[in-house]
Amino acid sequence: MADGIEIKVCLDSQIHIGSADSSFDYLSYIARSVIHGLPSSAYLIVTDRNVAKFHLTSLEAALHAVIEANARISSKVSTYIMPSGEATKTRETKAGMEDWMLVSGLTRDTVVIALGGGVVGDLVGFVAATYMRSVRLCHVPTTLLAMVDSSVGGKVAVDTPLGKNMIGAFHPAKHIFVFPHFLVTLPAREVANGMAEVIKTAAIRDSTMFRLIASSAADIWQAFKDVKDASGTCMLESRLHFLQSFIASSIAIKSDIVNADPKELNGTRNLVNFGHTIGHAIESLLLPEALHGEAIAVGMCLEARIAVTKGHLTISELRSLRDCLKAYDLPTSMLDFAKCASAPNLTVDKLLDRMAIDKKNAGIAKKVVLLSSLGSTAEKQASIVEDAHIAAVIAADKEES
């Protein structure tokens, strides 16, 4: 560890996990690492409208400062601002960005910097994978979800009307900069969105981490709910340090799993998709009303219920999972989406139809990650589960009061 930075490696990516110390100049660190580590004629920062308001100007200034401090560097820095929200993660948005890059004369040595949450990282990463047959990519995730999940592992993609992330590639970033400082601008709902993935990671691999997350909700969550500034967001620095340990642990677990199965050839990487078989189907039917983590939280509860009915998991452990999710204001049943205008879409038939094109499937057979305890899985990869079994669990959830 140097300069308060912990370095982890996932595939070809260096993951820089930064100090939560408010005195640390993380923007200068990012700028130096990118410009000195990845020499180029051009650096392109891509972000969305929401993130641009908070972070674009400062990151752009940091890059310019490093360039101007070295007379031998004459690189240009460009910016591109895309619309916000999951609904913009489309082939059309990708094509628009690519056309702009071509018109702007950006060449194959360009380094693309994705500044934002999962939508920005996924879409911009896919552009980087295909522009001039691939250009170098860096991730600067600004949401908890992107820090612990979407920026790590090299998957990049866009959505289609038939499902999430159906068109994409594997294109690991050269550098991923994970700095808790970015979280101070997050609304509480976005923190919960990311905590769903942190909880998921602990549930599949680390029982001690799961218990700590479950017992720490007040320490982390109340900082977002009760102590707010004029903008409605905040994070007490002591909580930031606390959350940093969960971020580092989540990244370490995902990196270990991904490194063992980089392109999902032996099935073990599917373990990080606990909750996602049903969760992605829920999310696709509720967009844009439900966030990814909210849909995955319900997906975890339903898939854990399947594990209970198959004798792998105890009902007590299912309750503990639900209680942990509830402690972070996450939904645990499809009934929690009752106020969504799209809630009538959550029928058994429609959910099974969406699950039919899940990337984990083996032909027509659907695959679900089944827990054997809170911290381990029943198999080393997702398990085949019959449609009738999935349908029964979904139907039971919709009938609960």
In CATH, what is the homologous superfamily of the largest domain?
Answer: Dehydroquinate synthase-like - alpha domain
Which ranges are low-confidence, i.e. pLDDT below 50, for 5 or more consecutive residues? none
Distance between the termini: 51 Å
**How would you write the strand order of the largest sheet?**
1-2-9-6-5-3-4
Please tell me about this protein's structure.
There is one protein chain. With about 400 residues, the chain is α/β, with parallel strands linked by helices. The chain has two domains: about 5-185, Rossmann fold (3-Layer(aba) Sandwich); about 190-400, Dehydroquinate synthase-like - alpha domain (Dehydroquinate synthase-like, alpha domain), CATH 1.20.1090. It is built from 14 helices and 13 strands. The strands form four sheets. A seven-stranded mixed β-sheet has the order 1-2-9-6-5-3-4, with helices on both faces. Strands 7-8 form a two-stranded antiparallel sheet. Helix 2 (about 50-70) links the parallel strand 3 (about 40-50) and strand 4 (about 75-80). Helix 10 packs across helix 11 (about 290-310) and helix 11 runs antiparallel to helix 12 (about 315-325). The N and C termini lie far apart (about 50 Å). The mean pLDDT is about 90.
Question: What is the strand and helix layout of this fold?
Answer:
Blueprint lengths: L5 E5 L2 E5 L8 H12 L4 E7 H20 L7 E7 L8 H13 L7 E6 L1 H13 L5 E6 L2 H7 L4 E6 L2 E8 L4 E4 L9 H18 L1 H9 L1 H10 L10 H24 L15 H11 L5 H18 L5 H13 L20 H8 L10 E3 L2 E3 L2 E2 L5 E3 L1 H13 L2
